[in-house]
């Protein structure tokens, strides 16, 4: 038993010694490891510094290289831009010259157009003036046409009237702006009807106002062969309203006494109207007949 215990104690001492040695080794190893870690940390710091310096150096070199490259690129770009600028400058100078020429040509054309416009405007003004003149002339022509139409109508009416006149009357030439209408047939029935017929044709039973008129009518009657001794041509003198006071029916002026024939008027109350007797002198006759057996003479202003 004692041997076993002794053996056990020896083993325990050996184990403890082993443990102590191991612990010592471990401690030494830890110290060594700690030293190594410290060294490694320092070396790492140095490496970091070296790496940082390296990186900085590398970056600077890279930056220098990049800068050089960029600088070269910029120079190349500048050269390209300069070449392009020179080319564009030449091109645009040519275009500017062309545009200047075009501008000068355009300005000249504008001046020509302005001058042409002035000429055209002047011509337009003249045409407007001519148009206004033509318009006025056209208006005047229309008025003249209307007037001529009226004149033509009047002339036609006058012509138709003269046709009717010449169908009924022999017409004298003009004296003092008047003509004398002598009936072709014996139309005198009474003084009222004769005066109405003369009025219808724009006149009245003839009135002998002066010697020239009296002689003119004598010649007219003579030229129409109405100068027979028994011929009586009624005119416009009467004393029907007042016996012995002879006046013209239309004008109410006194008849000229010198134109009466001898012993005329001499018919009294039975003969109250005036007539040419045988073309040469005036005679009094009855104003009312039972039949149309005499002619009469109208005096018609033109």
Features:
8 strands; 3 helices; Mannose-Binding Protein A, Chain A; 302 residues; alpha+beta; 8-stranded mixed sheet; 2 domains
What is this structure, in a nutshell?
With 302 residues, the chain is an alpha+beta fold. It has helices spanning 2-168, 191-200, 211-223; strands at 169-171, 178-183, 204-205, 232-238, 247-248, 273-277, 281-285, 295-301. The protein has three helices and eight strands; from the N terminus they run αββαβαβββββ.
Count of runs of 4 or more consecutive helical residues: 3
Q: Give the percentage of residues in beta strands.
A: 5-15%
Q: Spell out the helices and strands N to C.
A: HEEHEHEEEEE
Radius of gyration over C-alpha positions, nearest whole angstrom: 77 Å
Helical residue percent? Answer: 55-70%
Here the CATH topology of the largest domain equals: Mannose-Binding Protein A, Chain A
Please identify, by name, the CATH architecture of the largest domain: Roll
User: What's the story with the biggest beta sheet?
Assistant: 8 strands, mixed
Structural class: alpha+beta
Q: Mean pLDDT score, rounded?
A: 80
Runs in which pLDDT lies below 50 for 5 or more consecutive residues are: none
CATH homologous superfamily heading of the largest domain? Mannose-Binding Protein A, subunit A
The dominant shape is: rod-shaped
The total beta strand count reads 8
Q: Can you tell me the CATH class of the largest domain?
A: Alpha Beta
Distance between the termini: 203 Å
Keywords: Coiled coil
Coiled coil: 89-158
InterPro entries: C-type_lectin-like (IPR001304), C-type_lectin-like/link_sf (IPR016186), CTDL_fold (IPR016187)
Organism: Biomphalaria glabrata (Bloodfluke planorb)
